[in-house]
Amino acid sequence: MKTFRASIDVMPHDELLDPQGKAVSGSMKNLGLPEITGVRIGKHITLLVEAKDKKTAAGKVEEACKKLLANQIMEKFSFSLEEQ
Q1: Whole-angstrom Cα distance, residue 61 to residue 48?
Q2: Which residues contact 75 (CB under 8 A, 6 or more apart)?
Q3: Domains in the chain and their CATH numbers?
């Protein structure tokens, strides 16, 4: 068995409002950073998975994202894997 580190990004779908991101975007002006706009806030998750190969590990990570880590109605996810 090999160990892989997954780096997962979960973000709101582009077509959905992001109230937290909008609030942070609005605050940038107050901080003297008006050139920063369009902030979107999500989650970054790292985890370790043991699998016989990278393809199997990717399947397990995708399953975890679909079943638990991302609400697919409101969020999208992407991930990368590296062998440890």
Answers
A1: 9
A2: 10, 11, 12, 13, 42
A3: 2-83 (3.30.1280.10)
CB 6 within 8 A of CB 83: no
Q: What's the CA gap between 66 and 57, in Å, rounded?
A: 14
Q: Give the length of the chain.
A: 84
CB of 53 closer than 8 Å to CB of 39:
no
Q: Containing H/E element for 75?
A: strand 75-83
Q: Which residue has the tokens 């942070």?
A: 24
Per-residue confidence band for 17, with pLDDT thresholds at 50, 70 and 90: very high
Please report, for residues 40, 44, 84, the alpha-carbon distance to residue 77 in angstroms, rounded to integers and kept in the order given: 14, 10, 22
Q: What integer best gives the mean pLDDT of the chain?
A: 97
